[in-house]
Amino acid sequence: MATDRHSERRPDPDALLALAERGKRGRLLVFLGAAPGVGKTYAMLQRARLLREEGVDVVIGLVETHARSDTEALTRDLETLPRRQVPWQGHVIEEFDIDAALRRKPKLIIVDELAHTNALESRHPKRWQDVEELLDARIDVWTALNIQHLESLADVVSRITGVTVRETVPDIVLRDADDIVLVDIPSEELIQRLKDGKVYLAETAKLAQQKFFTLRNLTALREIALRRAAARVDDQMVEQLRQNAIEGPWETAERLLVCVGPDGLSHDVVRAASRLATGLNASWVAVTVDTPGGSEAPGERAKIADDALRLAQSLGAEVSRLAGHDLPAEILLYAQRENITQIVVGRSKAGLLRRLAGRSLSEALVRRAALIGVHVVTGDKPSQTPPRRWDLRALLGRETRIGAAAAVASVAAAVGAGELLNVWLRLPNLSMIFLIAVLFCSARYGARAAILAGVLSFLAYDFFFIEPLYQFTVNEPHEFFALVIFLAVAILVSWLAGRARDQETLARASARATQSLFELSRKLSGAVALDDILQAATVYAQKTLSARCVVMLTPEDGELALSSAWPPIDALDAGEEGAARWAFEKSEAAGWKTGTLPNVRFQFRPLVTSRGVVGVCGFQPQDPAGPLSPTMEHALNLILEQAAIAIDRAILVKASVRTVALEENEKLRTTLLASLSHDLRTPLATITGAVTTLRKFGEAMPAEQRADILVSIEEESGRLTRFIANLLDMSRIEAGALRPKTDLVDVAELVRASVDRAAKAFPAQNFATSVARDLPFVKGDAKLLEQVLFNLLDNAQKYGGGGRVAIHARRDGALVLISVTDEGPGVKPADLERIFEKFFRGGRMDGRRAGTGLGLSISRGLVEAMGGRIWAESPAARRRGTRLVISVPAAEASEATKAVS
Amino acid sequence: MNGPRILVVDDEPQILRFLRPALEASGYAVLHAGGGHEALRLIANAAPDLVVLDLGLPDMDGKEVIAAARQFTAAPIVVLSARDREAEKIAALDLGADDYVEKPFTIGELLARLRAALRHAKAGVAPKTKIEIDGLTIDMERRLVARDGAAIKLTPREYDLLCALAGNAGRVMTHSQLLTAVWGPAHKSDTQYLRVFVGQLRNKIERDASAPSIIRTESGIGYRFSDGA
Taking CB atoms and an 8 Å cutoff, what residues of chain A touch B84? Predict the structure, then answer.
């Protein structure tokens, strides 16, 4: 067991990882004070001067000295960055210049007043966000913070002091700070300093008026600050223990869950949970439950829950959204899955009836939770749950009116039907007919119409069919009883049917969403080209979010550029581009409703693929003031995911196409080498072998055998010569060194000369010539034309399969066409152009057909240099054969006569 | 003619035009195949004593012909191949070809290789127990090696390597064939072992290790133990 114990005593990997992560950022030191005036700035500057003397690169980013001489004296020796001048409503306000700080990039920068709210057009709304960016840029930051500005304490502070705290800093900023320095003086002394006028600043003046600086307040704040600092030091010790693998009881098994709902208490509940979590050193998660199918619009109520969740996130909570009808059940299920040990819930102001039935959320949780502690937070002010929307507007909504009309009409119809039946049959009980009316309304118009129909039926039944008739009184007790039962049944039926209808609506909506998503993924998978994918994604996103959408990508390691937009726009403005770049570089949302450049019209989200961030997707909501609803958020995430996958695929396809092209190129080179090697070596091998054979056995050989071997030597030498001539021609054409003469050439003579040469080179081949009479001269180089024609004949005998090779020459307008036709298997249509490419050869790659793959390529080069054209036709006749045609310009008759004279 | 029958597999008619008279003049009977399929049919039916095979054939790869032929014949196969196709030569030898001749070749060179291959094929029927060459004697039964009567001390690996080479005297052995025979299939590509051991072996058995005459290097391919011819 001892060994086990030993192996467990390793540094906790998580703790080490956190340490390593920290090394990548700048270090944050927070000077924490209980109230303004305790001397945070002074302490900060004093320590900075010490560092300065040690040679550390310290810069003042922004310090508020409030014109106090001793503080100002401290700043004198330190480099101070100029402030940014922001014009605002006719005057100029000065702000911390983050860009200047990033450009200057000191080792350490001092930025006072962490809780400050920046001017409207700044990159970040809050100064603590500027500080985060500095830390990301590996700049160490010192800053000052009053405890009252800490988000989780805001409500406590305002309760104690009666002053509402507006500027807050999320707890995570302090939690993630590398260290804190508590600046503390006794409360009496602070008050004395105030009285002496040693502390005087705008903020304090204002606060002073609000009776902030009372001994009671200051003592309370001081206690909070001291406790926070102590907790913080405790955390640090635990962290250190973990990093150094010292055993200890630091492990906390506590995990908190806080329930957030659409009521005014939510923020207080979240803060309470945050404090509790901090106290327990536990992780915590904030949860809200959406009840689907509700007819209410996601308006005010949803916004409250959203805001509370956001607050929880900024306080360091994980955030989760659940969906379901049964709130306590959903919450407890989640709690079980997530190993939650404690639940924090606000006491909802459920109506008296629900409370009596034990149906308020807190009570249900207490009743049903097993092995989970439940904290109930009560508010001191009346809950500000906004009324459900339908209380006002929904009642007057078109749908409700139609439902009411339908209820009245169907009940009237039931009355009519009942009267008719009464005439014929005199049924003892007509309630069933009214039930039909209720059912019809519930199935067609929902629960509310059905309930109305139920009540109306109840009244109508009583009025029209129960003695005494046409009165709302009932004579017989059993009749009354039947009526009440009818009402109960009607309401139950309508509730059930209405619920079924709601569920159907929900199912239909989800089917629509699925259908729509399916459509998107089909469109995306159908598109191969990147442009098509982007187009499909932006159009779809525009439709779904009803917001203008843009996609920006980085083309080939370039700058982020607009790639697609719907509806189309030409360019983004500078602020929008800044937000887009931010989203791309930091891989986080930027722009509208985010912590970075929130005044930009667009919100940009990174497109994350398997190869990292490839671009950003931006959307501009129609109503900039409206919230980003959970459904929209969900849809957006789906689109981003799908688009990222599709883009990733498109990039992969592109890359693989490039690889294939490279491979093709490589293959071509190999083929070329193989072919050159083979074509040079075969004649050489024959010559060497034949010569050595003759030397060794020649004398003993019969004369005709000897002669045959000699002929083979001659033939192979010719083959070699032609091959080398081809290579030289090719290199001359490629080097542009070919200068064809423009003589007058007699076509008949040209054909005769090349056929003679071919007949000599390929004695076994049968050539047939037919040249039209009175052909005009052509303009060109006789020598080169002969070479071209010979190449065509060579080619024809090689691929002609031994059949006849026919040469035709005829006039066609101002051109003379010379064609060479073989009877071989022909050329595939796809290859008709490719056969003129260099080293393209019919047959196998290692080229058993003795040829260079250069002949036709050279011919084309030569003909085109003379202003003619060459092309191939296949099949030439009877589905076989290839015809190669040269067209050269005919010489003018006048030129011909001139030449003759 | 009653001499050994040689099958020439080559689709270049010009080669055959001198090869046939030369081979016939040297006392061989000549068969000819223009492609791989015809070659395999002739090897199976006519049972030639030796095959001269050009690796570039119109209908199938020459290496496939070797692989297929080795299923049913032990007749020596001499491959004709270009100098720059080293990988192809090695593959052919590993598939069971006995030797190779680079194109272009002189007829004398080819005939020497054919003779060696035929001799080796005949000798292979009864493996020798004693080899003597250029003053070096190897007694395989007693595992003794001596030069001019003086015993040479070899390590077991060196002795195995010497036997692998001497047992195939006159034939080229590829690196991987030697490595497989001496070190086992796992070391098939550890060519540097081989270089070291061949160097040591030469120091011990050659008269002049800087100009080896018994173990000759076939550069890029392997080694050939001289058969004294």
Answer: 673, 677
